[in-house]
Amino acid sequence: MLIQGISHHPSVLERPAQESLVESLRAAVLQSPLYTPVMPRTGRPFSVRMTNMGTLGWVADRDGYRYQAMHPQTGQPWAPIPHVLLELWQKYAGYPHPPEACLVNFYQQGAKMGLHQDRDEEDFNAPVLSVSLGDTAVFRLGGTQRVGKTQTLKLSSGDVLVMGGPSRLCFHGIDRVLTGTSTLLKEGGRINLTLRRVTKP
Ligand code: MD3
Ligand code: FE
Q1: DSSP state of 168
Q2: Which residues line ligand 1 (CB under 6 A)?
């Protein structure tokens, strides 16, 4: 890897653990339904559907990007973060305080995510920990400036990716999801979970 602070842990979750996590997510989306965020100013919809778990959730709407305690459509608190994810954070994040937000990104056919930085958190000392479920994604990683070299990495179901240290502010995105590469989700597609510390502890 060109950039320090990234660690890719393939196949951390075995199939039964992936299945039980998907079941937890089915319960969570009953409380906190998936919705389609829109870009600030333009109002253009994301191709990814989202929800959150935790005391805070990341939202995008015409007014901007921010973390908030309530689901934007139901006005209710987000569902709690499943215990297995808090255990992954403890094991892989190398950070002594718990995550506050788990952003859930759901990719169906054709969904992608353009190159961006994650910088709406107050605490960049904390890493972001991602868990991939379902179809394999082509993840693109650049440097800390929008221009310059990028590399790609495949993220498969059960993989954990930790972005800490200098990599925390790297540009990144999802070029595409490879249809038919996993049988985890009956209808296909991909779920990405990102655990985040938002506030300074
Ligand atoms: C690199 N999600 O939610 S996860 C996002 O697969 C996001 O849905 C992608 O980018 C997805 O913001 C990529 C891997 C990831 C997550 C956070 C990062 C990579 C990161 C933060 C900083 C640098
Ligand atoms: Fe991101």
Answers
A1: G
A2: 103, 105, 113, 118, 128, 130, 137, 139, 161, 163, 167-168, 170, 172, 174, 192, 194
